[in-house]
Amino acid sequence: MELKKIMNKLENRTPAILGSDKFSKYAILIPLIQRDDGLHILFEVRSLQLRRQPGEICFPGGRVDKTDKDERHTAIRETSEELGISESSIDDVYPLDYMISPFGTMIYPFVGLIRDSEEIEFNRSEVEEIFTVPLSFLKNTKPETFQIQYRVEPEKGFPFSQIAGGENYNWQIRNMEECFYYYEDRVIWGLTARVLKHFIEIVQS
User: Fold this and answer.
1) What is the pLDDT of residues 47-61, one digit of tens each?
2) Starting at the edge strand that comes first in sequence, how are the strands of the sheet with 186-189 ordered?
3) In this predicted model, which residue has the larger pLDDT, 118 or 179?
């Protein structure tokens, strides 16, 4: 009987990433805008009044709410709220590869086309300013890349005596690539640059 109960519980499960129920989930949008000289990508500068990462360059986006239909809807909703445009003016929204950060977050990036961009009236409580970069410039510009290492530091009292190797256990060190794009006086780096690089690689493949 116990075996049958176990099999019943496993039979209809949908696999997920182990521990993902504890992750914070966010969705962002790479906004494309058609200009006279071709396609541009729109970026935001975070308000200087924000508690987290004030003044940093980012894409529109935010936390996935329980009321959101899915991550795509989150990206559209957040972009609409931050840029002061209607959701219906955001078209052709397609997903990129989602990311799992070392800091307990899952990020779902999307790309979408913003029509009637002259109607943008961004939310000044969240956005300090906006600017665009020609897609042609980004396609022809390689970012500077650097490696960041994440080292394991067990907390005080960690039971080293219970593991093979004890205090000399050979912990794996994780490397992460950090990218920097430079445009005029702007520096685009961090998560924004990683998602941007991923998008550029897709459109150039």
Assistant:
1) 988 888 899 999 999
2) 144-150, 174-183, 186-189
3) 179
- Would you state the pLDDT for residue 1? 67
Closest CA to 195 of 60, 86, 76, 84: 60
Rounded distance, CA 203 to CA 61, Å? 22
Q: How far apart are CA 89 and CA 91, in angstroms?
A: 6
Reported pTM: 0.88
Hey, how many other C-beta atoms are within 10 angstroms of the C-beta on 96?
A: 16
Which of 3-12, 67-76, 121-130 is least confident?
Answer: 3-12
Which amino acid does the sequence have at 86?
S
CA gap 31, 91 in Å, rounded? 10
Say if residues 94 and 112 touch (Cβ distance below 8 Å): yes
DSSP 174-196: EEEEEEEEEETTEEEEHHHHHHH
